[in-house]
Design a protein that fits this description.
4 strands
Length: about 80
């Protein structure tokens, strides 16, 4: 049986399945990475490949969609904590 680690921080659930190498946040697959290096490299690569204008549209759309997803998680947290 695989080793699993779970932690609750402020009512939010984080879990790691060390055997499978899977991380989850609130029961959903998630990823952790360094903002100042990995995320910058990702954004720079998107801009380099698609051009500045297309990259702006892609990032704006992604931000909008992430906002919707984030709002779902926050709503779940707010309901659970009586907000």
């Amino acid at each position: 049986m695989g080793e699993k680690k779970n932690i609750d921080i402020g009512g939010l659930s984080f879990a790691w399945d060390l055997e499978k190498g899977q991380f989850s946040f609130e029961g959903e697959d998630a990823i952790l990475f360094w903002i100042s290096s990995a995320m910058k490299t990702l954004f720079d690569t998107i801009e380099e490949i698609s051009g500045e204008e297309a990259a702006s549209v892609v990032l704006e759309t992604t931000g909008f969609r992430q906002g919707i997803s984030s709002r779902r998680v926050l709503s779940k947290y707010e309901r659970r904590n009586g907000f």
